[in-house]
Structure to design on (268 residues):
């Protein structure tokens, strides 16, 4: 009821505005020959939608059936068009508002219109920062200002590490991973004694062999082959080599210990 109570006042206000627009168009006060075709199509669609909506409300208020009336498909068509052009409205909003402001300034003051056009003009001074050479040329001869590219000299990359240094570093890393060096560190270290790593390795190898024997027995009893992962295969190969860590096998590369003595002579 609140909406219906103010409907008559809004209708009279809208009629007054429409009459003023019609009079302005008839007296050529409002130019309509030039404009954006997009806005023309949009306004015609909105006008068509409003006309059909008013006709639909009239049918509903009079109690007539709208089943055979073409007003419903027309309303759906206009509504769909207005919803589809919303992304386009968002993209063209800035350009349309700018053109409207320029049109208003052109009608009010020509000076303000010319200044507004300069606002949107690109300033070439903002694209690149002049260097010192260009500034000197501008001060000496403003007419002959040539672009002088900055001087960049290529620098040769010098590797401070020689091949011998890299080889020595590689041997040092290899010796750090050596089992013999670990045993020497355990023997002369001040750290508290714990279970020997040799004993731990031997126990681990024993468990691996026992597990392998159990798998082998299961395969023979059930006449089937168990599928092992890559990790299990690697552990089996490692356990099959020897039960204890073969420390003496590292004596083949015992000459690498000379790197340690050379490093002690050089000092830190």
């Amino acid at each position: 009821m609140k909406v219906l109570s103010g409907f008559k006042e809004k209708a009279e206000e809208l009629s007054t505005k429409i009459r003023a627009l019609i009079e302005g168009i008839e007296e050529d006060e409002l130019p309509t020959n030039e404009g954006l075709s997009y806005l023309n199509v949009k306004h015609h669609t909105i006008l068509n939608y409003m006309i059909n909506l008013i006709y639909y409300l009239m049918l509903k208020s009079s109690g007539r059936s709208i089943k055979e009336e073409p007003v419903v498909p027309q309303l759906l068509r206009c509504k769909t068009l207005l919803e589809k052009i919303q992304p386009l409205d968002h993209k063209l909003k800035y350009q349309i508002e700018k053109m409207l402001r320029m049109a208003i300034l052109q009608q009010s003051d020509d000076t303000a219109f010319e200044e507004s056009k300069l606002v949107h003009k690109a300033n070439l001074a903002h694209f690149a920062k002049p260097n010192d050479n260009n500034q000197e040329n501008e001060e000496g001869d403003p007419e002959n200002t040539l672009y002088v590219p900055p001087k960049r000299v290529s620098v040769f990359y010098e590797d401070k590490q020689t091949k011998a240094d890299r080889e020595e570093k590689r041997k040092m890393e290899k010796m750090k991973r050596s089992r013999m060096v670990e045993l020497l560190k355990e023997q002369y270290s001040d750290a508290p004694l714990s279970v020997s790593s040799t004993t731990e390795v031997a126990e681990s190898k024993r468990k691996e062999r026992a597990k392998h024997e159990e798998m082998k027995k299961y395969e023979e009893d059930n006449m089937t082959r168990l599928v092992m992962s890559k990790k299990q295969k690697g552990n089996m190969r490692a356990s099959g080599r020897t039960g204890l860590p073969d420390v003496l096998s590292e004596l083949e590369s015992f000459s690498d210990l000379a790197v340690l003595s050379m490093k002690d002579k050089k000092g830190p």
Notes: The chain is about 65% helix and 0% strand. The mean pLDDT is 72.
